[in-house]
Design brief:
The structure holds 2 protein chains of 2 kinds. Chain A is an alpha+beta fold. Chain A contains 18 helices and 17 strands. The longest helix of chain A is centred in the N-terminal third of the chain and has 49 residues, at 2-50. Chain B is globular and about 30 Å long. The chains are: A alpha+beta, B alpha/beta.
């Protein structure tokens, strides 16, 4: 720093010195020129005044003295020289080029002395220094002589080559000095600049190799700066790697968690403490009709179109103290969605997060299952209690007055027996179904001669049936392969079909059983000419306790489980059961049993 | 003589009920479902109706609703024979006046007694 200051001062003072020199030189030159002019003018005019008149004013063809002034005319400052007679009229004149001696330049006064004056040039040119002298002859003024020079000005001064040289010389002398000085100062800079340039060509910042002597303080400082930059850049790199790693880890964890949340079958919404959505998975759209993208960051009042749901969510706004609440809503006619809202719990060992978790779950199936279970229980209760009812009433009647009649007693006991039969069959059926549904049944498959098996069932059923009017038709004309089935269970299934065919048949109708073999399956068909089943009810007849409307033609003897059980048994065998029916004409039930032994999916008997 | 309408799709039930009630001195008519029951109610006056719930066609619940519409000032009593243990059935009939529930399995004795209470003003014969 100190060096810079001194340098500046030196340069400043040198410049001042040079300026001073220049000014001095110029002014001295001007002064000297003025003096020169003065001396020259005076002496010249005096000289001319002493020259005999005839010599001054030449006759024609003669050279006058004035012409000798041609020498003087080489002086660029020379303006003019005139000889005037006593009256003031010019007699002889020598004028510098371009100048005209106007009469206004001539004073009419008579001068008796030698003098000089400065005339301002009206036309704006240089001032004129005029020298005057009277010409004396024998003591009388016979004329005047005037000589004028231009006042010296800068242009004239600078015309002087010598002067120029003397002016330029100090500058020229000083310039190299300056140059050397600057170069000396610049040297470390240029060294450093060169090295920095080299460094930039390289990729990484390395130490700046400069010997302190050459580069000086600058190089040392730059070195230190580079070292610090390198150190800090390493630190930043390290930090950024660490933060990049932790960002990646956080992003990965977040992605994993979000992917888990996306995979959940439930809709998930997280509300922050202000009640705005901080997260919503895409399941909220099909479940609740909420678009997760537009809901993000916004309060329920904006995106929730269901007034019930909105009222529910608003309860949790502003960090409600309610621990958990549940509501159910129906976004459309077929679905029931349960919405659960809970304050967020902190993770184990983690900090608490304010906010609310909202879960939406489709509980349509659950609700239906519950309802159908309740319905089932009702049905079972009814089906069990009805026969008991009859049993109770009739046995009471036997013991009462009615029992005094023998006919009544017989009738009552018949009824009691029938009801016991019904009840027993119902209980058996219910138990079978419960076992099958509970997975407790394993098929005891046996290789069965199909035709024999079917004949046996058919003959029993037709004998047991109390329908003498019906025609029973067994068609075992086609030879079929043996089937691999649980005889007891399949007997029940086929028997149920036959019982229905008998029960729901018209007067003098027909019941037929036939069997066919296909590529993959054996088909057993039971046909009746009964009341038939309406088309909209055909899919429902395999439901438990379902009795097609208008099916009751005789005393209630069915409990609506026969087909349901048959279906279960057939499906347990890996087969299927189907119905075709024309109301008023009849129905045909077909059992298909796969020929190849089906893969047994039930558990081994425990 | 008091008239009773017995509504049940099971002929066994209606037969034995009719027998017992006739023994008790009532006049008994039988209907197999709610629709037939309504017809009878329109034709004759009855003092009581004993009805089952689960019947094909118009069931006991609908019958009670229709009776409420058609006979708002009815004098006859209604007994509903239900096999449900839950009491769910009581929701729809519990608000009706002059109505009672009978739990199946019914006892004939019990039935006769209850009829007597409501129709004869409390005289119960042992």
């Amino acid at each position: 720093m100190r060096f810079e200051r001194i340098g500046h001062w030196m340069i400043a003072s040198s410049c001042m010195a040079v300026l001073g020199i220049v000014v001095l030189l110029v002014s001295s030159q001007v002064t000297s020129r003025q003096e020169q002019t003065l001396v020259l003018g005076r002496s010249l005019v005096q000289l001319l005044a002493k020259v005999p008149y005839e010599r001054l004013v030449p006759g024609p063809g003669e050279r006058g003295f004035l012409d000798a002034l041609r020498e003087a005319r080489k002086d660029p400052d020379f303006a003019y020289a005139t000889v005037l007679d006593a009256a003031g009229r010019p007699m002889a004149e020598v004028v510098a080029e371009g100048l005209s001696v106007t009469p206004s330049l001539v004073r009419r006064e008579r001068t008796a002395w030698v003098g000089d004056r400065v005339l301002r040039n009206a036309s704006g040119g240089r001032s004129i220094h005029e020298f005057l002298s009277p010409i004396l002859s024998a003591g009388r003024v016979i004329g005047h002589v005037r000589v004028a020079f231009f006042a010296p000005d800068l242009a004239a001064v600078l015309d002087d080559t010598r002067f120029l040289i003397s002016l330029v010389l100090p500058l020229v002398l000083v310039a190299p000095l300056f140059y050397l000085l600057i170069r000396r100062e610049r040297r470390p800079l240029s060294i450093v600049q060169e090295r920095v340039r080299e460094l930039l060509r390289q990729e990484s910042l390395t130490h700046l190799e400069v010997d302190p002597g050459g580069g000086g303080e600058l190089a040392r400082l730059v070195n230190r700066l580079l070292q610090r930059i390198e150190r800090q850049s390493k630190e930043v790199d390290g930090q950024s790697t660490a933060s990049l790693a932790s960002t990646k880890i956080a992003a990965y964890q977040r992605t994993r968690i979000e992917s888990v949340l996306e995979t959940l079958p439930d809709g998930v919404i997280v509300l922050d403490e202000a009640g705005s959505v901080s997260y919503a998975n895409s399941r909220v759209k099909p479940l609740l009709g909420i678009d997760p993208v537009t809901a993000l960051g916004r309060k329920p009042a904006i995106w929730c179109s269901d007034p019930e749901l909105l009222a529910f969510l608003l309860k949790f706004q502003g960090g409600s103290l309610l621990p958990q609440e549940r509501m159910e809503l129906s976004p459309d006619a077929d679905r029931i969605v349960a919405v659960l809202a809970r304050r967020l719990d902190p993770p184990p060992g983690g900090a608490a997060v304010a906010g609310t978790l909202v879960l939406a779950r489709d509980i349509t199936d659950e609700v239906r299952a519950r309802a159908s279970q309740a319905e089932f229980v009702d049905h079972v209760a009814h089906e069990l209690k009805s026969p008991l009812n009859v049993l109770g009433m009739y046995s009471e009647a036997i013991l009462g007055k009615e029992g005094q009649s023998e006919d009544f007693r017989i009738e009552a006991c018949n009824v009691i027996q029938d009801e016991v039969e019904r009840l027993s069959s119902l209980i058996t059926t219910l138990l079978s179904m419960a076992r099958i549904e509970g997975g407790a049944v394993s098929l005891q498959r046996q290789r069965t001669r199909t035709q024999e098996f079917l004949r046996d069932i058919f003959e029993t059923a037709s004998r047991v049936a109390r329908r003498e009017d019906l025609k029973f038709d067994l068609d075992l004309s086609e030879a079929v392969s043996p089937i691999h089935v649980d005889k007891d269970l399949l007997r029940v299934a086929i028997n149920n079909l036959l019982t229905n065919a008998i029960k729901y048949n018209r007067e003098r109708g027909r019941v037929s059983l036939s069997v066919r073999e296909g590529d993959d399956a054996v088909s057993i068909r039971v046909l009746d000419t009964g009341v038939g089943i309406a088309e909209d009810q055909q899919s429902r007849i395999f439901e438990k306790f379902f009795r097609a409307s208008g099916a009751e033609s005789g005393p209630r003897s069915g409990h609506g489980l026969g087909l349901a059980l048959a279906k279960q048994i057939v499906e347990l065998h890996g087969g299927g059961i189907a119905v075709e029916s024309i109301p008023g004409e009849g129905s045909q039930f077909t059992i298909e049993l796969p020929k190849a032994p089906a893969v047994l999916s039930e558990a081994e008997p425990t | 003589m008091r008239s009773i309408l017995v509504v049940d799709d099971d002929p066994n039930v209606s037969r034995v009920t009719k027998l017992r009630l006739e023994q008790e001195g009532y006049h008994v008519e039988v209907a197999r479902d709610g629709a037939v029951a309504l017809e009878r109610l329109r034709e004759q006056t009855f003092d009581a109706v004993i009805t089952d719930v689960v019947m094909p066609g118009m069931d006991g619940r609908e019958l009670c609703e229709r009776i409420g519409e058609e006979f708002p000032d009815r004098k006859f009593f209604i007994f509903v024979a239900t096999s449900s243990t839950e009491g769910e059935h009581r929701d729809w009939a519990g608000q009706m006046s002059r109505t009672e529930f009978l739990e199946k399995p019914l006892s004939l004795r019990d039935l006769a007694d209850r009829l007597a209470v409501h129709l004869d003003g409390g005289k119960i014969e042992p």
